[in-house]
């Protein structure tokens, strides 16, 4: 597995599933879940900023090659890995992705180790909804959904789906009703997001905080980085995770 300078590499296993993780920092925990094609230099730069703010960051490596640049080769490699893995759901609606079970266990163990009000989690693009799925059954206190794009919005029904089973959606709504806020980021004309922000507003009400930017770009925190978006996420973690 590729080493990342300054980051501690280890494996985490839950329910007989193992993925490598990279860890750095001190303070409350934040799980940064990479988008396609993987832990890119831009994703790594964002994670470093979260560390610098005073958090322990854990980055799971789910697919791709760590620190590979975004390009046709890295995108194709990640797509192949996703397509053959049963951990990831790409098209199904009304269903929680299986990898959420592993991510929830990671969050529970990180919180048990570090304490505090809970763990932060940010998913992006293909993994954008994972932070919401984790909220259903893990101590997530600061969930961030950056341009959530799964299931792929090839039909209107898939474009509005949140990637949650009915039971998990009910659990999320209960936590949100109890006061947990959910932060979402997107470019308004990003077709990959579909109409999920409308669904999030309808299901979560005023505790869904939408940060939207003009245009049709995609990766709000990485490749098409919006500094305002990064600042909002960092402020969200600071506010929600202060113990």
What CATH calls the topology is Rossmann fold
User: How many β strands by DSSP?
Assistant: 8
Percent of residues in helices: 25-40%
From the 3D coordinates, which CATH architecture would you assign?
3-Layer(aba) Sandwich
Spatial sequence of strands, sheet with the most strands: 1-2-4-3-5-6-7-8
Report the average pLDDT across residues: 95
Specify the structural class.
alpha/beta
- Stretches with pLDDT under 50, minimum 5 residues: none
Count of discrete domains = 1
Distance between the termini: 34 Å
- CATH level 1 name: Alpha Beta
Rg, nearest Å? 16 Å
Structural description of this entry:
- The chain is built from eight helices and eight strands; from the N terminus they run E-E-E-H-E-H-H-E-H-E-H-H-E-H-E-H.
- It has one domain: 3-Layer(aba) Sandwich (Rossmann fold).
- It is 36% helix and 21% strand.
- The chain has an eight-stranded mixed sheet with strand order 1-2-4-3-5-6-7-8, with helices on both faces.
- The protein is of the alpha/beta class and 243 residues long.
- The N and C termini lie far apart (34 Å).
Keywords:
single chain; 243 residues; Rossmann fold; globular
Per-chain topology:
Blueprint: E1 8-14, E2 17-24, E3 28-32, H1 41-52, E4 55-60, H2 72-84, H3 99-114, E5 119-124, H4 130-135, E6 140-146, H5 156-160, H6 166-177, E7 182-187, H7 196-204, E8 208-213, H8 227-241
Parallel strand pairs: 3-4, 3-5, 5-6, 6-7, 7-8
Antiparallel strand pairs: 1-2, 2-4
Keywords: Hydrolase
Organism: Nocardioides immobilis
Domain Dienelactone hydrolase: 27-142
């Amino acid at each position: 597995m590729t080493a990342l300078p300054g980051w501690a590499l280890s494996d985490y296993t839950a329910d007989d599933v193992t993925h490598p993780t990279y860890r750095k920092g001190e303070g409350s925990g934040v799980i940064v879940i990479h988008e396609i094609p993987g832990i890119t230099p831009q994703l790594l730069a964002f994670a470093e900023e979260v560390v610098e703010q005073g958090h322990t960051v854990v980055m799971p490596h789910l697919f791709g090659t760590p620190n590979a640049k975004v390009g046709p080769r890295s995108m194709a490699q990640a797509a192949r890995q996703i397509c053959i893995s049963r951990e990831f759901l790409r098209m199904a609606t009304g269903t929680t992705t299986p990898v959420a079970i592993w991510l929830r266990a990671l969050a529970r163990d990180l919180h048990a180790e570090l304490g505090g009000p809970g763990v932060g989690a940010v998913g992006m693009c293909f993994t954008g909804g994972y932070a919401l799925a984790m909220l259903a059954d893990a101590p997530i206190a600061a969930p961030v959904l950056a341009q959530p794009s799964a299931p792929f919005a090839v039909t209107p029904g898939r474009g509005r789906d949140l990637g949650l089973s009915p039971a998990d959606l009910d659990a999320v709504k209960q936590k949100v009703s109890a006061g947990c806020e959910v932060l979402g980021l997107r470019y308004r004309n990003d077709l990959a997001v579909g109409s999920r922000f409308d669904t999030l507003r309808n299901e979560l009400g005023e505790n869904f905080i939408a940060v939207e930017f003009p245009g049709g770009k995609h990766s709000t925190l990485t490749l098409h980085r919006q500094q305002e978006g990064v600042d909002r996420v960092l402020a969200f973690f600071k506010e929600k995770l202060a113990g």
